[in-house]
Design brief:
Elements (H helix, E strand, L loop, with lengths): L8 H33 L12 H4 L12 H5 L10 E6 L9 H4 L2 E3 L4 E3 L13 H18 L3 E4 L11 H10 L4 E8 L9 E5 L3 E2 L2 E2 L4 H19 L13 E4 L3 H4 L5 E8 L3 H7 L2 H19 L2
Parallel strand pairs: 1-4, 1-5, 5-10, 6-9
Antiparallel strand pairs: 2-3, 6-10, 7-8
Helix pairs in contact: 5-10, 7-10
Length: 302
């Protein structure tokens, strides 16, 4: 058997190169196998971030975290309504009945004079409209604040009575509200069911001038009616608004004296047993608050 030393120089050089090349291939293949295995089973590969939780990677328009994702907990309130001011006006006051003389005082609403406020209505079992409105408004406040809005209440159960209807409008005006909502429940006859949104009519009389807010208030009302219906499952009123869920009035000081987009929402009829069953149910009131929040959000982010 002959050895390599007897080969010509050019053949010895070629053999050496082949041996070196084979060693490089074997070493490289072994390293790749180790690297590949660690990348699949041993955590993230070097130079790559760890895979994110699906909830953390879910984003909405502009890269903001979507509701329910971890990002909403880690980064505070979602900013969909950041910079927006919303005024919520819980209709009436639980203590109005104790101040009959004060709330009977007449105030100027532009085209007439009316009582400062009233006691509101109640279900046949005694659940007061004023208690209902305050509960739903507080729920809506929480939801709107989670969206980043600044929320101003005309009263939070912290006043002996009122405020009067003219002051309720003025609170929204002074806050330069982007949207204002006065919340109520109706006191019509049994069999009259459903919600309706009251829009401001055009009134230019005395201190009242709604010319600038009629259009945007209608847009607010339409979006509010649509979302309230979708979330609560309630039908539009069968006795006001011709099935549209919208009504227009010129006799409400809270609308006549407003200089910001504003509507009233009558959430249902407290004197109808079926509507009353909804209005007295805490789960339904939470849906009402969510419908209100979504309607206002639709209007402010249109």
């Amino acid at each position: 058997m002959s050895n390599g030393s007897s080969l010509p120089p050019h053949r010895r050089l070629r053999g050496t190169l082949l041996v070196v090349l084979a060693s490089v291939v074997v070493a490289g293949l072994g390293g790749w196998l180790v690297w590949h295995a660690s990348g699949r089973d041993g955590g993230p590969r070097a130079g790559q971030p760890a895979p994110s939780d699906p909830a953390e990677s879910a984003t909405g328009p502009g890269g903001s975290h979507t509701p329910g994702g971890k990002g909403s907990k880690e980064h505070g309130p979602r900013a969909g309504l950041k910079g927006k001011v919303v005024v919520l006006d819980p209709g009436h006051n639980p203590h109005n009945g104790e101040h009959g003389r004060e709330i009977a005082r007449q105030v100027d609403i532009g085209n007439a004079r009316k009582e400062c406020d009233t006691t509101g209505t109640a279900t046949n079992d005694g659940y007061a409209e004023a208690s209902f409105t305050l509960d739903v408004v507080r729920r809506a406040r929480t939801l709107l604040q989670e969206q980043g809005a600044k929320v101003v209440l005309t009263q939070d159960g912290d006043r002996p009575y009122g405020p009067c209807v003219d002051e309720r409008a003025e609170i929204g005006n002074k806050a330069h509200a982007d949207a204002a909502l006065s919340l109520h429940a109706d006191g019509s006859g049994a069999g009259n069911r459903g919600f309706h949104v009251i829009l401001p009519a055009r009134v230019t009389d005395g201190p009242a001038d709604t010319a600038a807010i009629v259009g945007p208030s209608r847009q607010l009302g339409e979006r509010l009616a649509g979302r309230f219906r979708a979330v609560t499952g309630s039908a539009a009123s069968n006795y006001i608004g011709g099935g549209t869920g919208l009504d227009k009035r010129s006799d409400l000081g809270g609308l006549n004296l407003s200089t910001v987009p504003k509507v009233f929402l009558e959430c249902g009829n407290m004197r109808d047993p079926k509507d009353a069953a909804q209005l007295t149910d805490a789960d339904w009131r939470q849906k009402a608050a969510r419908g209100i929040t979504e309607g206002i959000t639709d209007f402010l982010t249109r």
